Structure formats: C-alpha cells, structure tokens
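step 3/5: co-fold with magnesium ion
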Amino acid sequence: MEKKLGLRARFNFYETLEASLAYQEHSKFLTSLAGTWDFLFCSSIQATPAAFLEGKYDQLEWQTIEVPGNFEFQGYGTPIYANIDYPFALVPPRVPFENPTGLYHLSFEYHKKLDGQQILRFDGVESAFEVWLNGRFLGESQGSRLMTEFAISELLKEGKNELALRVVKWSKGSYMEDQDMWWLAGVTRDITIIEESEIQSIKVTPKLEQEQWTVEIKLKRAHQKRLEFGVFNEGEVVCDFRSVSEDATFAALKIQQPKLWNYETPNLYTLVARIDGTVYLPIRFGLRRIEKINQILCLNSEPILFNGVNRHEFHCQKGRALTKEYMKEELIQIKRAHINAIRTAHYPNHPYFYDLCDELGFMVIDECDIETHGFPEQASLCQDPLWEEAFCSRGLRMVSRDYHHPSILLWSLGNESHFGINFVKMAEKIRAYDSTRLIHYEGDRECQVVDVYSTMYSSIDELKARASKKISQMPHILCEYGHAMGNGPGSLKEYQEVFEQYDSVQGGFIWEWKDHGILVEDGTQTSYKIGGDFGEYVHDGDFVIDGLVLPDNRPSPALFEYTKIIQPVEFFYHGNQLVLRNKYKYKQLTGVKLVWEFQNKEQTVVGEISSISPIDPGTLSEVLSIPAPAEVNGVISFRLIPLEPVGVFQPEDIFASEQFEYEASYQKPGRTETSLEKTIQYTQSDSFIQVTMEETTVTINLHTGNISSFVKQGTELLNAEMNLSLHRQQISNDAEIQKIWNESYLRELFSYCRKFAISKNQTTVFLLIDQYIAPPQAPWGMYVKNKLWLLDGKLTRDCEIWFDGQAPSEVPRIGWELPFQNKVAQVSWYGRGPGESYPDSHYSSHIGQYQLDAKDWAFPYVVPQETGNRMAVEQAKLLFEDTELELVCARPLNMNLVPMTANQNMNYRFKQPEDPLQRVLRIDGGMRGLGSHSCGPKPLDKYLLKSEYHSMKFTLA
Ligand code: GAL
Ligand code: MG
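step 4/5: write tokens
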C-alpha cells in the first residue's frame, strides 16, 4: 500500500476557533517530534548495521542529535562550500560510495485523538531519507526543501511507538540541488504527526469577477461529516459559519467590503472549516491579483517595483535549521530596511517563512529546489526525459504546498539549470494547478514559458538598451543584481533611477541578504569559516560571503545604502520650502514627525515639525515652510521619525532622511507664511495650471509638461513653449557628426507629460512633472524629471534627464530654451565673458561681471554657425523694452542668446518671427566642445557631450 500522500496544501487542525485563527502550530491535533533523537553516523549507506534494518534498535549504541538540525553542525561530518562545481563525479543518478549517512531513532508515546487519518509530515530532510514506523518500512523521499507526508494510521500504535530514519547526504536528488551554498545534510525542518478529520485536501482560491470577490473552496472529503465554512478578518466575522451539503466538494463564499492584501497593508482573511462543530481547519488567504496589464506586472492594478533581496536560509551556528523566532527577527529586520520583496533563493523556504511574509507584507518569488549549475549546457538534465518527473514533481510539490500564501506572486522554476523541455513541461503543470500566479525562471532567456524576462547582474546600459526598444515586450526584472560581496555593491542609486524611470524595468533583488560564514569556536577564539576551511578539495572560498549583513545579521554599510535608496519618501527642498512624496503605492504615510538640522563648520541649528498631515499613496505633502535657520551657507538634513510604533518601525528609527545644500542666498531668514503680504493665485484645469505670484504669471501645459506662458508685469515673454533642446546650429567642425544628428532628427523634440503632481500653500506651488521628450520617428528619447518651484515671484526649475533608447552617443548641447516674444535689448551676467566660450576654448574668457547689447552678443562668422555661448554663468539679467528677466543658476550653467531664425528649431515653425532680432535664450546644462574635425581630430573625449544623465537647476524671475 502506498503510504506517501499526493499533492496537497499544508494545513493543520485545531480544537477551538480561537486557536485556529491564531494560526500557530499549537494544537492538540499536532504532535511535534522535534527534540533529541538517537543517532548513528555512518560513512556510507552500506555501513548501516543490520540491526537497524531489522528494527532491533535497542541493540545499537546510539549517540544523539537535535532534530531539526544539520549533521555537520553537531559534530557529524563536515560542510562543503561550492558554488558551481559539484563536489562529486557527474554520473547521474549515481552518487559516491562514501556518503555521510545518519541513522535516527525515536521512541515516543502516542494516543490517537481523532477518528480520521494520522499523517507523519516531514517539512525538509537533506538530501534524501527512508522511514520506518514500528519496524515497518513506510517509504522514502527526496527533495531537501519540500514537504513529504505519509499516512501512518495503520502502523501507528496506541502507546509506545518507534520511528526510525536513514538520511543520506548524497542522493539522486543532489544532482538537482547544486545551489551556490554549503552542502549539508540532516533533518533540517520539523517532523510532525497530524490528526485529521474529514478534510483530506483543500484548495482555497480568492477570485475577483465583476467587481465581486469570492472565495472558492475545493475539497477532498473522507467521511461526509457535518461541515461548515466561515470567514474571518482580524478576529471579526466576515461570513458566519454556514454548512455545506454532506457530499459537497465545492463551496463559494462572497466577501463583502473587501480589504485587499498588498505588501504595504497586508490584510489577511482566514477561511475556517468547522467539522462536526468541534474540529477547525483554518486557511489564511488574501484578496489580491497579480497580472500583467499592457506587459507591466501589476499587483491589484498598480505597477510593481521590486526593491528586493535574495535570501538563503542560514544561521551561522545552525546551518539551515532555523527557529521561528530567528526567522521572524530576520524578516522584521528586512522589513525595517524598506525591502519589499524576497526571492527564496534557491529553494522553497520553511513554511513559517511564508506566514511571516503574508503578515508582515513582502512580495515573494517562491523558487523551486532545482539547480543543476555544474552541468554543461549540452548535458543539462532539463533536456533529459529521464529527469522530467523530477522537474515536474518538485515544481508541483512547491506549488501545492504553498498555494494559499498571498505573499507569493510568482513561482520560480529554479535557478541556473539551463533551459529545455523539462522546464516546459513543468511550467505547463504548474499553470494547470495554479492559474492565479505568474511564472519566473531566469534561465528561460527567450521567454518561452515565463511571464517575466529576468536577468542577473545586467549593467545599467543593458537594462536601458532593452527597455528602450520601444516595442511591446515582457517586463524585465533583475532576479539578482548588486552583488554584495565584501565592500559593495556600488551604483545602487543608478539602478534605482532606471527602475523608477523605465516602466518596463520593474526592479530587482540584491544578491544577497547574508554572509554565510560558519561560526567556529577554537578555544577562546571564534571565527567565521568559509569554503576550504573544512579541508574541502572542491570549494569556492569566500564567494559565500556576499551579503548585506554579516553572518550574525549585523548590517553592513551596504544595507544602510540600500535602505536609503529605496526609502518610501522622496524629499524636495528649495528656498526653505519642503515637500515630501509618499512613494508607498497603497498606504498613507502618517504618524511621523519631521526633524531638521542645519549645519556648517561653525554651528548646528535644529528644529522639528511635530507632525505631518497624512500623505496619500503616491502623492505629495503640502508645502512645509521650514524656518530659515541661518544666514550663511551650510547643509540642511531632514529626518522623518515615527511618532509611535507603527508596524515594524519604532520611534527611535529614522524612517527616511535626506540632506540638501543650504544656500543662504536662496533663503529669506525669518520669512513665515503670515508675514508674506503677497500670496499666490492659482488656477488649474485639465490642460493647464496657471500661477500668479507678485507680478509674474506662469502657465504650464499639462499635455506637454512645458511652461507655455511667462507673463511679467503684464507682458508675455514667450513666443512658444519653453522646451528642452539638443540642437545647435551646425559649426564647420561638426560636419561629420552633424550627419548623425540630422539622421537622428534631434532638431525637433516632442514633449509628453507622463506624470504630474502638485502641492501648494499660500506662498508656494511645487510641481513634480515627469516628461518624455523625443524626436520624430527615432527609437530614442529622454525621461525628464522636473521639480518646479514657484515662490516669491520666482520660478525654479530643478531637472534631471536620462537618455533612453538608441540615442546618438553624443549630442551637441542640452538645455532649455525660452523663445521670446519681444526684442532683447541688453544682457548683463556673471560668468565667463565678455566673448563666447566653449568647453575646449574658454581660457581667454575670465569669469566676471559683464554687460552687452544684445546686438553685440554673437560673433559674425562668415558662414553663419553656432556662436555666443557663455560658460559658467551664475546670474544674468535680460532687458526687454518694457520688462526684464532675471536668471540665477544654482550651479554654473551655459547661457546663450541666439536669433530665432538661427536656432531653426522646428518647434517654432508655427510662429515664424517677424522681427529678425527676436531671440531665444538658451540655458544649457551641457555643451559639446568644438574640436577641429573639419580637418583634424574630434574634440577630446572629455569635451564630448554624452547622451547620459544630466541635471540642472536655475531660477527665473
Ligand atoms: C548567481 C547565482 C547565485 C550566486 C551568485 C554569485 O549566479 O544564482 O546563487 O551564485 O551568482 O554569488
Ligand atoms: Mg549557481
């Protein structure tokens, strides 16, 4: 008789409703066999004493072992650390004769409590085992991190019982478990006897159809006992118990006023099956949808951004046998670091891990216990039909065991095992079992079976290049990036910028959470052991030390860096005004105070705003006026601190922080909202926003995201929109590259407003405008993030630009243009002058205060071409006939005043200037050098203007 149970979810029975809702594994119907067992260590399977096989356990001289636990951490055998290479010969399915083997024995008393079956459940044994109950062979199993259950009712006796196991380190299964980690053996997870009643298998599926959430229940039943179902949420009744018919194997319950699950607000429901009014079976579930909408991964319709981490199960003194307390502490630490996702690299984790993820809120990629990294591609097991069953059954055992956890959004087919037919079959079977989740596997490079394109360690350029292809394509995630080995990783900030700008790049998972050094005490000394320290022949040394935290979970600097970069709050600061953005997608930001601190070499000034009004997900705070702390330059830091414990955050935590330069010239010390006489006027429609401050009125076109009108003292300055531009009139030395620029159509750019948010108070308007700006036809463009501040009659633009797609590798210039309505009479400025200057030709133009009539601004080259740039401009004033315009640059910029006709920007074609003296003001963050390429070399590399990241900040008044 086959005693091993088939696929089913992992569940427990309880004696009260309260106990079932508490969802802990304490129940009269659960008997843990954890503890000290008899143990015998043999060097091979063949060395097993005959008495053991004959069930004559009292004839053996036992030692002891703790269950759960690994052999190697209790003095039996040694760990081996190897990354890719197998430490044994590749002759599957054979394994070495020398094979660390553990014989386990336990005598225990048992009294049956229910009339159903008794099940013996193993949550994880490395790497394979056989089991005997009362001397009778029950079965065998492999799959180190998967559940195996045996029906034991027939063999289990009232009173004394004897359980025996034989566990081997090397098995056929080891070929499937070549993960980059320590090779260990033993009973690493719980062994439990479960009493069952009536229900033999249950599958609970929440579904959303026509805006109604329903939870569907499929059952396998034993005795047709009285069965009722109820649904609870935080102890409250959502659906009261109601019976189903005696033979029903299906039920559906409607959930009214649904509270959705997400990783920020992890609402959990519990379905409880009540059997005969006395036995309870709870299944926790969440209402949430994971799907692709227009090729973007979405959770409850919101695009996902994984700020994730890869996590192995590891304890520096216990190996892979973790206690629940330890898991909980570790996950709280991860949550406090603002990490929102975990990939269970590279095997299904302990069942309790998923309960914690459901409760604390993590998005989980649940990965199957499959890695065959050491096989050459041609000999890969995933192409071998003899291994098909192993692939499929490992997949289905994971999916069926973990089916109910809302935190799991994707199933991962495994890691680094090449790609072949066995994965295709496995994916098919998983989909048939679970149609509610998506599939991940990094090895499926052509995306034949997966729902998401996943890569490891892609460079920022590779990410951008793919994202910029501008065709409908799979969403891209990095299942591993930011290799945290030793001191590092670097450039997390640049990765995050790509994740946040490019819709199709949906984040990644740092490799990895923890260093896996093994703590060894040597007399009075303790040290962490790495690969090779146990005398291994095949090993990979310190490659096992590549985490964000040390083996004892002490955070490394990299964890602080990552936490800062992914913090859920963005700070915008200018002129003593502060705006916060809540980057949570589903959750209000509330219950925090703001502490600010000004510092320079001489002084520190601190203050706080004791509470911040709640900020809705994805939106901006009100504008917070910070009292000007000083009349000198310095730095100002902001910290958000929880007012009381919220979730995992404590009042001593810094929830989010940011530092800015404090420029005294920007500040008006002592200014408060009430002391300001002139306030702003503000109008908004679907297509524009208009703000009047003192004598200036600015209008923003919400379709293009551009400033479309700038009125000063009643005079409209602009003739067309102020737009970003890359074009300069061709110079003789540009002839060669100009062909590329012409083919790239970079003279005419179109602007689209992608996202927009606003915050204002009586004196200040802050606008956050994300634009996409691109030329006609070409497969490239620019993501532009603008922070516009309107205060004190001034407009400040602080912007960042990321090139996207196959842009020409360099561009002539980059900056904003103001095409003027009226003639500019005169310009005065502080910067390089008086004549023009370019990056590779400026030594004769000293920095100073200058003034010129507009007509004298440019140099009259015989062949008309680009002329007139002034570098290092910090301030300028333009005089018109009836008004003036002031420019202040936060960091020195290029400035130029070019005739509208010379500029030839096609954007102005609808408004041809009548007056040849009509000008365009250019404020440029970058300018290419001149070189002598008309008959000589290009400009030196450092004088080229690369199509990369650029930023600039300036104020107009
Ligand atoms: C990846 C692999 C990980 C780990 C990492 C390097 O290739 O999936 O398991 O080996 O590289 O530390
Ligand atoms: Mg590997």
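step 5/5: annotate
The first helix runs from residue 17 to 22.
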